[in-house]
Amino acid sequence: MGENPHVAALARLMPPVHGADEQVDWVAAEARWGVAFPSDYRDFMARYGGGSINGEAVVLLPLPREGLQWPPADLAEETANVRHAWRAEGGRDALDVDPEDLLAWGVTAGPDILCWLTSDADPDRWPVVVCGRHTSPTFTVHPYGMAEFLHRLLADEFDDPPVSLVFWDGAPARFVHWREEQRRFLAGLDPVTGDPDPYAQPRPDRPDGA
Question: Which residue intervals define the domain Knr4/Smi1-like in the entry (predicted)?
C-alpha cells in the first residue's frame, strides 16, 4: 500500500527535512484508544512523526513516549481537554456528537484543539473537528482528513480561517520533529529555527543536545 496522497501533497508543501519515522506500535495505540487510526495519520507518523509546524501547531503522538528533556505531547491531554470543552460549551447544543467520539490529534498556539470525529466505522472517513478558543462557533466540522486539513490550512485555501491564529504567513511551511526540537533546546538553540537563542539555558552536560 502506497503513501497516502494527502500526506504526499503535504510533503511537497512542507518537506519533512526534520521529520522522523515515529515507529509507532499501532497495535498498542489501537488497544489504548479502541479505534483503528486513519491511513493519513499513520503515514504522517512514518514520514514526519510528532512535532511542531511553524512553531504554532503540534501534531500529537498516539502514545506517550520518553523525551530527551520532557515528554513529547500525545493524544491524551488534549483529548481530555476537548471533551471537557464540549461539556463546558453546552454539550450537544454546541456540537451534536457523543463526546467519546472526539479524539484530539493536534493543538495550535491559539490555543485550538484539532480533533477527529470518530463516529464512522471507517477511520479514513473521519472529519476534522476544530475546537477553537477564539472561533465562532467554538466547534466546527470540516469534511477532510487531518493531512488534507493541514494542507489546506498551510496553502491558505479556507475562505474563513478555521483556527484562532494565522501561522501560514506565506513563508515556507516548516516541520520540526519533537526530538530535534529538544536537541536544539538542550544545545541553546531556538527549537523552531535552530538559530542561536540568547535566552536559552543549555544543559552543561549536553552541549550538543545529544
Answer: 19-152
Distance (Å, whole) CA 82 – CA 174? 26
Kindly list the strands in the beta sheet with 139-142, ordered across the sheet, starting from the edge strand earlier in the chain. 139-142, 128-131, 113-117, 102-108, 57-59, 51-53, 175-177
Degrees to nearest 5, angle at CA 94 with 92 and 96 = 40
CA atoms within 13 A on the CB side of 38: 27
pLDDT tens digits along 4-33: 999 999 999 999 999 999 999 999 999 999
List all residues 6 or more positions away from 90 whose beta carbon is below 8 Å from its beta carbon: none
Share of the chain above pLDDT 70, in %: 90
Q: Angle CA(100)–CA(86)–CA(24) in degrees, nearest 5?
A: 45
Asked whether 25 and 63 are in contact (CB, 8 A), the reply is: yes
How long a stretch of residues is the chain? 210
